[in-house]
Amino acid sequence: AQKITQTQPGMFVQEKEAVTLDCTYDTSDPSYGLFWYKQPSSGEMIFLIYQGSYDQQNATEGRYSLNFQKARKSANLVISASQLGDSAMYFCAMREGLRAAGNKLTFGGGTRVLVKP
Amino acid sequence: GAVVSQHPSWVICKSGTSVKIECRSLDFQATTMFWYRQFPKQSLMLMATSNEGSKATYEQGVEKDKFLINHASLTLSTLTVTSAHPEDSSFYICSARDFRDREYSNQPQHFGDGTRLSIL
After folding, report:
1. DSSP assignment, residue A98?
2. Least CB–CB distance from B108: residue in A35, A97, A106
3. Do the Cβ atoms of B49 and A44 come within 8 Å?
């Protein structure tokens, strides 16, 4: 079974509008962390935002926010006020366990976002 | 912020050649580094976990003798693709975690910029 599922292979979004990228995960470990990364066409991986399984509040980082619904095992990324530079692949990833030994990341299939002017 | 340097950025070589890719943590020490492979329009697949001073841990299905990993210091891990063939052509990307992050799970892995490998 897939541990991280991103159901949207690609999305168009109008500049200045908000977009939500879906991510669902599967784990039996009560301790885990969820990450979102952005990968432009140049290939580098840019860390965007993190949500821990014990965090009480949804994470926010500038224009990025995470809609964390633990019972549904979903961690959707919301990008507000989209900019042309937001066009990229976006990956959701999970790290199971809190200690160093559980540091391996599992990535979802990614969602390609194209921002239209 | 934490910087990971990966070299070379891209390489084209003939079939049968061995290719070495370096991953360096520039401003932090990394007891653990990770090597990923990414085919076009696909996700990152973990190949192996590189541990400083010990053998790498390979994921299922990854050939140890094909992809040699050496993590000789706290700031350098290398991936050598031995006797590369066209099917080894891919985007290889490394990441590292700061050893000081040991007890904290909210710190992300820091990625290099990747290496595009093309085998002719």
Report:
1. S
2. A35
3. no
